[in-house]
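Researcher: Structure prediction, please.
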Amino acid sequence: MSDAELSYPCGEDMFRRARQTSSLEPDMEAARQAFLDKLADGQPTPRTEEEAAAAIHAGLQEVYRRLQKTMAVNYDTARELHHVRVGGRVAARYIRDALPLIETRLAEQGIDLVREPVASAMLDRMRDYFEESSSDQKPLDLFRRDLAQVVRQAKTPADVQSATLARQLFDDTVRHCIEDGTVTAGAPREGRNWLEAMTAARRARRRLYEAFEPHGEQDAAGRIIEELATRRSSPRQALKALMGAGPYGSHGPSPYLARRLAVAFEDSPSGWHCVRSLAWLRLTREGLSEEGITSAVHQNPALTEALFAEEELALMPLSGVFEK
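Model: Predicted structure follows.
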C-alpha cells in the first residue's frame, strides 16, 4: 500500500462544516480524515477500519520478525565470543562500591539485604565467580543464567526484589569491567563486541516478552497480539481481533491491548498511527455527534488516555467534549 493511496489532503474549514452534519456525509468523512492527517506527522493515513487493521497486522508481523532476527543474530555473535571473561580486583572493587547504594535503596523500603537468603547467596556466588581464574570461570552468559534460576527460588517479595537487584549488579559489574578494558580472557575489543551483542539480544528479547507474549492465562490482549504477529489473518479477522464488533471501547481487553500495541510499535510511528487511526474511525463510526462521542469517551477514559495525549484530544473536531 503506497503513501499516495493513504494520504488525503483536506481543507482547513472541514472541522467547521462537520459540526453542521449529523451523518457520514462527504464533509463529515473529510473531517474524520482531517483529524487523522493532523496526527499523522507525515505517516500514511488509512481511510477505513479494515485498511487500518490490515496495516496493524502487517506491522506487528514485521516488528516481530525483526526482533526475532535481532535476537538470534546477536546471540550467535555472543556465542562466538563465549571465551570472553572478566573479573579480578576491578570487579571486586566495583561490587564493594556499589553494594552500599543497593543496601540504602532497599533499606528505604524496609528491606535488609543481609537477611534476604537468596540475594545474600547470590552475592556470595558472584564474589566467588569473579575471584576465580578465567580458566575456571563459566562463560558469562551461562553464569548469568544460573543467577536467573536462583532468583526464581526467592519466596518473599523482599527477597525477590533483593535478588533481582543482585542480578542487575552482576550485569553492571560485567559492563564496568569491559568498558574499563579489564578483560581477563579475550581481547578488550572482543569484550566490547560481546557486550554489544548481548545487550542488543536481551533488549530484543525483552521487547518480545513485553509486547508479543501473553503474561499469564488471563492475558487476552497478549494472546491477541501474539496471534496477529505469528499467524495469517484477513483484514476482517484482524479488525475483529483488535476492535471486536461493537462500539468504541466495548471490546474487553481494549485498554490493555492499546498499551501493548504502544510497546510493540514504540519505534514504528506508522504502526502506532494506524492503531490510533483505527480507534478514531471506530469512535466516529456513527458520526461526529457530540452526544455519541461524549458518551463513548467518558465511558472509556483508560482507552482514550492510552491512545491520545491531551494536546491531541484538543485537535478533535468536537474537542470540547474532552474537557475535564
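Model: Strands lie at 85-86, 183-185.
Researcher: Thanks, that helps.
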